Amino acid sequence: MYDVSELPDRLAAHIREYYVQGLQTIIQLQCESLVENFGVSPLICRIVGPIWLRFVASTRVFEREWASEAILLADARSLKEKAKKLKLKKESSTLPAPEKIEMSRVWTDSLKRRLPLRITLAMVFLACYVIREPVLATDISTWAGQGSLPYLTAFLSMQ
User: Fold this and answer.
1) How far is Cα 141 from Cα 147, in angstroms, rounded to an integer?
2) Which keywords describe this protein according to UniProt (predicted)?
3) What does the pLDDT look like over 107-119, one tens digit per residue?
């Protein structure tokens, strides 16, 4: 039996794990596509991992307080939005109590802000730069737009 107080933490960890693993899979597929279709060195597949891990660590999404911080920020944003609406309506009533926020949506939005999908293209470009491959950022952007790199389909499915 689960402790009721642990359920939000488990849900947040589950959402975070799947989101980060999804981005890792996209990066892996992009690297494999670069190797197979554009002649980039297979070394890119080994170099992009440490770069990705350092970036994820810098976003602090795996810290213990991440889930509660995301909820607090969402509460603060909703209060600001309600205050603006009340000022626009010129009502003299007090602010209503904050409505219950769906936690999974809040955590997913927080992850999307800290780890946007477009960062996958940046990671691949940075790995190409580190191994001194003659690939420009414009090349990666063009290939992603043409569908040669798995980005647009992943972007649409993650929205």
Assistant:
1) 10
2) DNA-binding, Metal-binding, Nucleus, Transcription, Transcription regulation, Zinc, Zinc-finger
3) 888 899 999 999 9
- In whole angstroms, give the CA distance from residue 96 to residue 90: 15
Instruction: State pTM to two decimals.
Output: 0.77
Closest CA to 110 of 66, 63, 158, 76: 66
Q: Under DSSP, is residue 11 helix (H, G, I), strand (E, B) or coil?
A: helix
- How many CB atoms sit inside 10 A of residue 41's CB? 15
- Tokens at residue 23, please? 């981005």
Burial of 67 by CB count in 10 Å (0-12 exposed, 13-18 middle, 19+ buried)?
buried
Q: Could you please report the per-residue DSSP string of 11-76?
A: HHHHHHHHHHHHHHHHHHHHHHHHHHHH---THHHHHHHHHHHHHHHHHTTTSTTHHHHHHHHHHH
One-character DSSP codes across 124-143: HHHHHHHTT-S--HHHHHHH
